[in-house]
Amino acid sequence: MSTLILRTATRMLTALLLLVSVYLLWRGHNEPGGGFVGGLTAAAAFILVAISDGWRAARRSLGVDARVIALAGLGLAAGAGLIAGLQGLPLLTGLWWKESGLPLGTPLLFDIGVYLAVMGSVLTVAFAIEREV
Fold first, then answer.
1. Residue 100 has what DSSP assignment?
2. Residue 60 is part of which domain span?
3. C-alpha separations of 112 from 8, 49, 64, 73, 81 in Å
4. In whole angstroms, what is the distance from residue 50 CA to residue 58 CA?
5. What is the mean pLDDT of residues 66-90?
6. CA nearest to 92, candidates 78, 74, 104
7. What is the pLDDT of residues 38-58, one digit of tens each?
8. What mean pLDDT is reported for the chain?
């Protein structure tokens, strides 16, 4: 049973956790952090919603099946690794888009893929455990 304090705090903490997860993702390909820890933080936000408002509310707030998110992440990470291979370079070679002025390239795409794969797989396991209990 959830309390009013927990439900109120969850609304604020969920947004904060998701924002921190994106920050960890963004700085991760240049410094410690990255897709793995960002994906775990994002999953924790939705698990907090589940603890506060119930598992059905957490699935609804996610908007997409967690398995789809995990598969999309795996596809994006694999695709980022294959881009260099399609250009005759070794797989997972970092390629950069220089025109943007930002550090955009295949390492960031790979990290986003890891972020989605970790978030989706952790939530898939959490939702599966919830169904068994």
1. G
2. 4-132
3. 30, 23, 17, 7, 12
4. 5
5. 94
6. 78
7. 999 999 999 999 999 999 999
8. 90
pLDDT higher than threshold 70 for residue 29? no
H/E stretch holding 88 reads none
Distance (Å, whole) CA 74 – CA 115: 9
Indicate the pTM of the whole model. Answer: 0.89
**Whether the predicted pLDDT of 74 surpasses 90:** yes
**Angle in degrees, 0-180, between the axes of helices 106-132 and 35-53, rounded to the nearest 10:** 30
Helix (H, G, I), strand (E, B) or coil at 8: helix
In the chain, how many domains are there?
1
Residue partners of 87: CB distance under 8 A and separation at least 6? 95
Report how far residue 40's alpha carbon sits from residue 106's, in angstroms, rounded to the nearest whole number: 21
